Amino acid sequence: MNNLKKTCKLLVFSITLFLSFSIQAQNYVGTNVKVNLFSSTPIEDIKAQSNKTNAVIISKTGEVAFQIPIKSFEFEKKLMQEHFNENYMESDKYPTASFKGAVEPNISWTKDGDYPVLAKGSLTVHGITKPRTISGNIKVQNGTISISTSFDVACVDHNIEIPMLVFTKIAKVINVKINGTLNLKN
User: What dihedral angle (degrees, nearest 10) is formed by the CA atoms of 40, 45, 46, 47?
Assistant: First the structure.
């Protein structure tokens, strides 16, 4: 009987410990975060959008990760999309772009509010990883996280070659905007 009490106490303690860690280690996940690309030159503006970006934020540590399938970007003109994937991004060879880092400061994920943050980490595009610090905004509302940021990516930093024939139509620096909602996932 004494062993049964000890086993029950151990079981209750284990469940309580597990639940306390689960509550503290909350993850926020988004599977349809929107990413917009914009290239502007005097000759032509080029826009593309993807709604298939995956994002994860681990609230305890402030760690953040994004992964974008390159072929998910859609352009107004199908020929632009084809050139983007085949000639510039080489999507079959480099199928994703990603960011891994941490949000600073690590905010109060359970307190509603708007928080200006910096995401410090590594941006990988076209197989080339570069350290980046990206400013953005996180809005916490009723347990849901909304994220937004806008930053520039220089093609040369990621060995993305723009042929001389079209250099007047494609900017050397591409603007990237990310907006989305992440929900609590235990």
Answer: 90
Q: Give this prediction's pTM.
A: 0.82
Domain CATH code at residue 58: 2.40.128.110
Residue 120 buriedness (CB in 10 A; 0-12 / 13-18 / 19+) = middle
CA angle, residues 114, 117, 120, in degrees to nearest 5: 155
Structure tokens at 14: 């284990």
Torsion sign over Cα 150, 72, 100, 139: positive
Element spanning 2, H or E: helix 2-24
Distance CA 107, CA 60 (A): 9
Query: How many Å apart are CA 122 and CA 71, to the nearest integer?
Result: 21
The CA angle 119-121-126, to the nearest 5 degrees, is 115
Q: Is residue 123 domain-resident?
A: yes
Handedness of CA 161, 163, 167, 170 (dihedral sign): negative
Which residues span the domain enclosing 87? 26-185
pLDDT digits (tens, 9 = 90+) for 15-58: 443 444 444 458 999 999 999 999 888 788 889 999 999 999 99
**Structural domain count of the chain:** 1
pLDDT tens for residues 49-82?
999 999 999 999 999 999 999 999 999 989 889 9
